[in-house]
Each structure stands twice: as structure tokens, then as C-alpha cells.
Amino acid sequence: MNFKIITDGSSDMNVDFIKSSNITIVPMQSNMEDEIYEIIGTDIERLNEYYEFMLEDKNVSTSQVNLAAFEKYFEEVLKNGEDVFYIGITDVLSGTYKNAMKAKEILEKKYPDRKIYVYDTNQASTGTGLLCQIICKMQEDGKSIDEIDDFIKDNSKYMVAQFGVDNLKYLYKGGRISKTSAGIGSFLKVKPVLHVSDDGSLQVLKIERGNKRAIKVLFNNFKKNWKPEISKEVLIGYAYFDENAKILKELIEENFKDAKVSLAPIGSLIGSHVGPGMYSLSYFGEKR
């Protein structure tokens, strides 16, 4: 039976993958100086404009995917005689998942013969994006929706998403840290390394002085934790500035010849909270 893989605009994926795959992305609205846009990962020009607004300290914001949008995107698939497999941003960070679940409940009554899978994998950004890239490849290789369901159930808990940020002020604006911490941290040029925990929340792993040390933390964690027997795919994200992401990519490729590393621009939803200069590393590991 045919099925469609769907995600939302919070999932950060490789641009070439998005263009060549059959994945459907439900966009999230982004607001720049009171103008509303729907930015997806392939619209690099608009995404860069969003980050430039942030660098100029102009007002930017994002909103979750509403119920009507999920009903629209899911029903288009169901009407076509296909099943739906959706994974997106964790419920801990957004109300988007709840709206996807409501759409599932509504549409299951209208289409009782169709399957609608809606998953909270307790992930976001490149963590969800890499899961999407892997399951799309599984679909291309002929795996069924139930086989992909089993893969997500068994392995999503091993998906690692760790990242560093260049400036603490965006974490403060997003309510992640206090104004005092942001001020002291910026003065000391502190570069925190964070990760998405088992329950989908953001937690600080380590505080470093400077990006070089923070990058080394991510790389050393990768060395100790990588679990290639699940997948050799590695996804590195970057928000506007890609220098740190490229350094991390080079480090991994030089030391792990089997790793299949790709880059992904960080979209406006995650970017709004972490700011330009954020870089992330996602892969399957022994633990998150």
C-alpha cells in the first residue's frame, strides 16, 4: 500500500535531499517585521533574509502548525488512496504535535480504511531531519509503512542531536536562559553546548570558552557515542554562518571514513531560538 512521509518546517534537512525526495513539508509561518512568510528549507534566499533581520535586531517570530493545515495536508494524501506517516517537532517544544494528533483523530473517522501514523520522536531540527532522510531512503528501497513504523519505534531513542550556539542573547529571547546569564555569558564569550534530551527538552551539556573548544566537545562525543550499525548517516546543521559546521564535517570525514556526512541549513523555527551561528550534529548513538 502506498504512503506519504510528512514532516513540518522544524525538521532541518539537506537541501539536495529535499529537492530529490518525495517528502512533504508542512511549512511553519515566520514573521519578519509584521510580514508573514512560509519558509521551507529549500528557500535559502528567504531564510538568509530572516537571519539578517535577526542580526539587525529586528522583530522576528514563528508559529506552530495549526490544526487546519494538518487536516489539509493529511487529507490530500488520504483522498489519493495513500496512508500518512508523520514525524515532526517534539511536543515538549511546540504545540504542533498536538495539532497533528487532533487531525489524525478527525481524519481516521472519515477514512477508516487508511493508516495515519503520527509520531513524537522527542526530537527537533537536524535530529528529526535525519530521521526523515533515513526513512525516506527506506521507502525508496521498498520498505513498507509498518517496517518504517518498527524502525522508528526501535531506534528513534538513539538519535543524538547536539549543538553549539554563537550568541546567548537568542536563547534569552526565547526564554531558555535568564537575562543575567545571557549578559554574563556574552561578556565572558561563553559557548554553551546543548542537546535534545530523552524527553525532548533542551539541556546544557557543557560550557566552553570559544567555538573551537565547543566543536571539540561535539566531535569527542561523536567519537565515543556513534552507533553506525543503525545508520552511517550523519547530519550537520548550520544557521546562516556555516564555518563551524564545515570544520565539524571535515573532522568527522577525516577520522571516520565510513560516515556519510551531509549539511543542512537550520530553518527559521529553530533559528529563532538559537540565532545565527548555531551549528548542530545529529547521528545515531549509544545514548542521547
Which helices and strands, and how do they pair?
Elements: E1 3-8, H1 15-20, E2 24-26, E3 28-32, E4 35-39, H2 44-55, E5 60-62, H3 67-79, E6 83-88, H4 96-110, E7 116-120, H5 125-140, H6 145-155, E8 159-164, H7 169-173, H8 179-187, E9 190-196, E10 202-209, H9 211-225, E11 233-238, H10 243-255, E12 260-265, H11 268-274, E13 279-284
Parallel strand pairs: 1-2, 1-6, 6-7, 11-12
Antiparallel strand pairs: 3-4, 3-5, 8-9, 8-13, 9-10, 11-13
Helix pairs in contact: 3-4, 5-6, 9-10
CATH classification class of the largest domain: Alpha Beta
Cα Rg = 18 Å
Number of helices: 11
CATH architecture of the largest domain: 3-Layer(aba) Sandwich
* Total beta-strand segments: 13
The poorly predicted ranges are none
Task: Label the structural class.
Answer: alpha/beta
Query: What's the end-to-end separation, in Å?
Result: 34 Å
Sheet-strand content, in percent, reads 25-35%
Largest sheet: 6 strands, mixed
Strand arrangement across the biggest beta sheet = 10-9-8-13-11-12
**Approximate helicity band:** 40-55%
Overall mean pLDDT: 91
Indicate the CATH topology of the largest domain: Rossmann fold
Organism: Anaerococcus vaginalis ATCC 51170
GO molecular function, one term: lipid binding
Keywords: Lipid-binding
Protein name: EDD domain protein, DegV family
